[in-house]
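Q: What residues go here?
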């Protein structure tokens, strides 16, 4: 019960189809048309960069979902948002900084204060729509603002004749506040600056850090603190090893406080030849002492596209699936894919970017 009820809303052993049908969800097909348009302007006011933007979105369905939301009879959702991004940069160079032990030769400290103010409104609340795709039906409504500071410490490494600049330490701190008309959908707050409508509303602070010990090895850490709950929501530490472009490996230990769960994520990417590469990934649940999921992907590069074949297993659903994806070079999305049983989310992997 402690696991099933928060995740699914009903007790173990309950017939999911009967529960969802009682809530008004139907298994019949639904036609949906969706378009999103954004207009933004970039300008400078002295040292301050200003980026106002407006977004309009229209989503039409051939169903008004009367059984799911009896009080809502509009099958066309009009969603709009407006906001502004502000940022500036301050930097200072420490020529005298030098350490053979930490491999530091000079330091540049870059400070980037930034903020985003954003508000969205709609004629159909997202709670009135069954969620087929989170980036379509799950859009945030209401207001959010974020203030933060990004800091980067750069140094030079390599020695005489081979000096190159590296980001020794990056530190990002943010505070996010959401107005009362937003609907919090997760205890793990996150603000996505490129599209705020995908964010998790709430009042929270985030800290993300990465320390580059060597050119190939980095240590990462992050924390999300919920001011709504007055407690730490999530904490993670990780290790990234990257011998580009042949080999990369990532280990990430993550603690989720609201669920009292600890997960260990593992990922390895290895380039076998110029045309073939393999990816291995797994997620270990420390609470159950078993692997929650695992995936293996084989990639083959062609002249204009990349073919990926993956096999994954999901211990939660007890399913194993096969996925085949065709990814054209230059594509900003995930390409074209066909998934088998349990293979719908094979592309969402740790260290895959």
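A:
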């Amino acid at each position: 019960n402690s696991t099933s009820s928060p995740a699914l809303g009903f007790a173990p052993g309950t017939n999911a189809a009967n529960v969802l049908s009682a809530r008004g969800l139907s298994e019949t097909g639904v036609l949906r048309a969706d378009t999103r348009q954004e207009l933004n302007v970039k300008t400078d006011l002295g040292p301050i960069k200003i980026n106002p933007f407006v977004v309009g979105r229209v989503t039409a369905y051939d169903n008004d979902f009367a059984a799911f939301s009896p009080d809502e009879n509009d099958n066309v959702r009009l969603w709009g948002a407006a906001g502004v991004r502000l940022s500036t940069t301050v930097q200072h160079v420490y020529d005298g900084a030098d350490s053979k032990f930490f491999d530091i030769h000079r330091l540049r400290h870059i400070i980037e204060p930034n903020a985003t103010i954003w508000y969205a409104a709609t004629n159909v609340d997202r709670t009135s729509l069954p969620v087929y795709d989170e980036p379509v039906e799950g859009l945030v409504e209401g207001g959010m603002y974020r203030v933060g500071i990004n800091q980067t410490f750069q140094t030079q490494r390599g020695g005489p004749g081979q000096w190159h600049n590296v980001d020794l330490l990056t530190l990002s701190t943010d505070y996010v506040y959401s107005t009362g008309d937003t609907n919090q959908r997760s205890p793990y707050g996150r603000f996505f600056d490129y599209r705020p409508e995908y964010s998790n509303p709430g009042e929270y602070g985030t800290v993300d850090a990465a320390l580059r010990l060597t050119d190939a090895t980095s240590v990462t850490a992050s924390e999300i603190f919920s001011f709504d709950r007055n407690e730490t929501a999530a904490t993670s530490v990780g290790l990234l090893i990257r011998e580009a472009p042949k080999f990369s490996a990532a280990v990430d230990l993550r603690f989720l406080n609201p669920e009292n769960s600890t997960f260990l994520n593992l990922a390895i990417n290895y380039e076998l030849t110029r045309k073939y590469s393999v990816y291995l990934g797994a997620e270990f649940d420390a609470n159950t002492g078993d692997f929650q999921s695992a995936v293996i992907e084989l990639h083959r590069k062609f002249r204009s596209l990349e073919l990926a074949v993956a096999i994954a297993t999901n211990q939660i659903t007890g399913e194993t699936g096969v996925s085949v994806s065709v990814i054209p070079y230059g594509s900003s999305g995930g390409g074209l894919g066909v998934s088998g049983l349990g293979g719908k989310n094979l592309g969402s992997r740790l260290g895959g970017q």
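A: Context that may help when evaluating the design: DSSP finds three helices and 18 strands in the chain. The first helix runs from residue 4 to 8.
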